[in-house]
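Q: Given only this backbone (372 positions), what sequence would you predict?
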């Protein structure tokens, strides 16, 4: 994705650290950040058992990406994720992909922020924190305005915490927002997600659980799917986020035998006037948001792709559209219970994880919150 972004302006690359660099999400960050036009990975950190080793040695036998370890990363010495001073000396901000319990992640990320290291997190620990922005950059780029309040609340100078939402939420929420932005408020959603096994991390569910099977339960997933959109659509009042409680979401979340790609079957009801199906498709095809206008390096062009075929989108055929960052939509039709229904798909480990966080960091850079 290094061929875009120069239209904003030429910049000296910002030094980036990946904390939790040996895990699956951390590996994906390193793969995607290779040759990034704005960011350069200068620090990798993980648990104490990996610290002190060359990165290639630390992940020997457990590098799970399809591409080889980037050459400039293989020889980096892995730092201890708990050593904030080392990170501060080697990088300007970090992507957080640590695998700890929620309370430990909260404390860990706050310690980095308190030491003047901005944190862009893949973790869920701070998604409900009332002064932490949770970005889908096409929907709520203005939520960056909470960062000065967050810094004031904690007495932080340069540091802050920003997060990305649940991976499955990103498979369908942008098409819903596009309709709302076009003047058609949505009152309620019923969504059934069909989520790839890579969303559970590596090694993920056992093959005996997934082959010839669907698992209709993912811990905490339905709660996240029903709550997180309310914050994403929310407003900033008195230095904290207030949820948009006018929207109701009901979710069914299922693990399916697909490696990558989260599919969402969505039925929605509009609050008042409803657009025609042709109008909806036109809105999706014409949709552009701040990341596209700014030509951010990881911004998909276009953000939403509508497929006319009656059997699309499909994970194997559509998950890599827009280099894994676009949302593909299809099967728009009338709904006998709600107003309309459609199927949406995005790549869960790119758009829904590392790639989405990188796009958020690009947005924060342009807004002046990340610098050398």
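A: Predicted residues:
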């Amino acid at each position: 994705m290094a061929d875009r972004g120069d239209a904003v302006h030429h910049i000296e690359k910002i030094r980036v650290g990946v904390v939790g660099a040996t895990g699956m999400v951390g590996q994906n960050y390193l793969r995607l950040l290779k040759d990034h036009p704005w960011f350069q990975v200068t620090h990798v950190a993980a648990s104490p058992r990996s610290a002190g080793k060359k990165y290639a040695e630390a992940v020997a036998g457990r590098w799970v990406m399809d591409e080889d370890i980037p050459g400039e990363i293989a020889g980096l010495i892995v730092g201890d994720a708990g050593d904030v001073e080392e990170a501060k000396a080697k990088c300007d901000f970090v992507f957080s992909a640590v695998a700890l319990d929620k309370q430990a992640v909260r404390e860990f990320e706050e310690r980095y922020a308190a030491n003047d290291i901005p944190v862009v997190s893949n973790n869920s620990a701070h998604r409900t924190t009332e002064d932490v922005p949770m970005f889908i950059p096409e929907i709520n780029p203005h939520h960056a305005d909470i960062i000065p309040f967050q810094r004031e609340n904690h007495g932080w100078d340069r540091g802050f915490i920003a997060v990305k939402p649940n991976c499955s939420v990103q498979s369908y929420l942008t098409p819903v927002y596009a309709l709302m932005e076009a003047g058609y408020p949505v009152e309620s959603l019923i969504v059934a997600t069909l989520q790839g096994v890579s969303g559970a991390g590596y090694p993920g569910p056992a093959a005996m659980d997934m082959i010839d099977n669907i698992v209709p339960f993912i811990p905490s997933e339905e709660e996240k799917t029903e709550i997180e959109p309310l914050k994403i659509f929310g407003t900033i009042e008195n230095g904290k986020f207030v949820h948009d409680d006018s929207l109701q979401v009901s979710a069914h979340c299922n693990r399916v035998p697909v490696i990558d790609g989260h599919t969402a079957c969505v039925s929605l009801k509009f609050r008042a006037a409803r657009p025609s199906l042709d109008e909806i498709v036109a809105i999706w095809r014409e949709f552009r948001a701040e990341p596209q206008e700014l030509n951010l390096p990881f911004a998909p062009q276009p953000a939403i792709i509508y497929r006319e075929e009656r059997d699309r989108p499909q994970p194997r055929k559509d998950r890599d559209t827009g280099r894994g960052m676009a949302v593909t939509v299809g099967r728009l039709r009338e709904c006998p219970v709600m107003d309309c229904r459609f199927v949406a798909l995005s790549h869960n480990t790119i758009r829904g994880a590392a790639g989405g966080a990188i796009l958020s960091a690009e947005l924060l850079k342009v807004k002046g919150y990340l610098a050398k």
